[in-house]
């Protein structure tokens, strides 16, 4: 099993989730709102003649837990759907191996459920 985490711009959250579902049939996702910046270092706004600098930009963190054989398909779907066409600021995606994933309700491991 792998945990795939993706930081995306908020406007792309639904697009990314739909792309992952279309590409792999995977439907489980956790979405967390976040703020941050990468190379773009924030943005500058002008309001009533005054200039304001926003160092942190609104983002979302999407977390998927998938079987090992779906990691490439999920990360490719995320990268394609998260791309906005901007020079920078679209986010990142990474995968981490995980183990011992258990459902709270049943106590069954996720690996056992997927085998059935």
Characteristic key phrases:
6 strands; 26% helix; two-stranded antiparallel ribbon; 116 residues; elongated
Structure report:
The protein is elongated. Strand 3 (43-47) and strand 4 form a beta hairpin. Strands 2-5-1-6 form a four-stranded antiparallel sheet, with helices on one face. Strands 3-4 form a two-stranded antiparallel ribbon. Helix 1 (13-24) packs antiparallel against helix 2 (71-82). The model has no long low-confidence stretch (mean pLDDT 87). The chain has helices at residues 13-24, 71-82, 110-115, and strands at 2-9, 30-36, 43-47, 50-54, 57-66, 91-97. By secondary structure, it is an alpha+beta fold.
Radius of gyration: 17 Å
The count of strands amounts to 6
Secondary structure: helix percent = 25-40%
User: What is the number of helical segments per DSSP (H or I, 4+ residues)?
Assistant: 3
- Stretches where pLDDT falls below 50 for ≥5 residues? none
Separation of the first and last Cα atoms: 16 Å
Strand order of the largest sheet: 2-5-1-6
Gross geometry: elongated
In percent, how much strand structure appears in the residues?
Answer: 35-45%
Q: Tell me about the biggest sheet?
A: 4 strands, antiparallel
On the 0 to 100 scale, the average pLDDT is 87
